[in-house]
Amino acid sequence: MPEGDTVHQAAARLHTALAGRRLTRFDLRVPRFATSDLTGHTVLDVTPRGKHLLTRIEGGYTLHSHLRMDGAWKLYAPGKRWTGGPAHQIRAILGTEERTAVGYRLPVLELLRTEDESRAVGHLGPDLLGPDWDPDTALAHLLREPTRPLGEALLDQRNLAGIGNVFKSELCFLLRATPWLPLGELPPGHLAALPALARKVLEANRERPVRNTTGRREQPLFVYGRAGRPCLRCGTRIRLADQGDGSRERPTYWCPVCQSGPAPAPAPRTVNRRS
């Protein structure tokens, strides 16, 4: 699942493969930009911004993409078979003489003028892995809605950019708070430390192929993906429920003993009535 750490890894791979090289193929398979052609232009850099990728190209262009749940950029050497998915899932092809970058299942793909990048990423809060990281600004953003559930606040990229569902669940566990606890009810020390903790966790996973928040090779995550299994601290079974703001529900994991705060309301039961 792409989050700030994996997006930064993808940007690094794309930058190494494409930056400073002239495009021999430029193919965007989305209706709005299908006729765009930057063949012959040089790729300047590939920069991550939260969960967004900005591929800057000579002439003042930026290709903006977002991976969301299952998008991916794959790199192939000349003559190698493309194995990232069926052809109808390809949304972008950026080719050079040495490598070809193929974007699969990209839900967001647009070609912008570089001077207009703020239209795509200007709403984002400080990037946890970026040069603009500012913990004070991130905390101030979070505190604008102290009654908002902690899990929702962490996922809101306008507060701080880069956290997804995995790190949301893991950070709530490390803070010993359920994802449904109103942000303002966190102990003051935990609240003040939240931005730095989030940065530390993502920074530790910036180069790792497999995420790890526990320090244990055999059990890399505390709660995410471990529903029904024993908590690594107390042995209680990890629970799973959906959390969202009404527009989108996300699977959320937590320990009901180690994490203080409210649990989600039980889902309504459907009663079959016979006539």
Question: Can you summarize this structure?
Answer:
Belongs to the FPG family. By secondary structure, this protein is an alpha+beta fold. It contains 6 helices and 10 strands; from the N terminus they run H-E-E-E-E-E-E-E-E-H-H-H-H-H-E-E.
Give an overview in words:
It comes from Streptomyces griseoaurantiacus. Residues 2-79 form the Formamidopyrimidine-DNA glycosylase catalytic domain. One of its GO terms (molecular function) is zinc ion binding. This protein is of the alpha+beta class. The protein folds into 2 domains: 4-121, N-terminal domain of MutM-like DNA repair proteins (Alpha-Beta Barrel), CATH 3.20.190.10; 135-254, Orthogonal Bundle (Helicase, Ruva Protein, domain 3), CATH 1.10.8. The protein is built from 6 helices and 10 strands. A hairpin with a 4-residue loop joins strand 9 and strand 10. Helix 3 (135-142) packs across helix 6. The longest helix has 17 residues, at 188-204. Mean pLDDT is 93; it is low at 268-275.
Distance between the termini: 46 Å
The count of β-strands is 10
The secondary structure category is: alpha+beta
> What is the string of helix and strand elements?
HEEEEEEEEHHHHHEE
User: Helix segment count?
Assistant: 6
Structurally, how many domains make up the residues? 2
Bin the helical content.
10-25%
CATH architecture heading of the largest domain: Orthogonal Bundle
CATH class of the largest domain: Mainly Alpha
**Low-confidence regions:** 268-275
Shape: elongated
CATH topology (fold) name of the largest domain: Helicase, Ruva Protein, domain 3
| Integer average pLDDT | 93
Which percent range describes the beta-strand content? 15-25%
- Order of neighbouring strands in the sheet with most strands: 1-6-7-5
Radius of gyration: 21 Å
Strand count, sense and barrel status of the largest sheet are: 4 strands, antiparallel
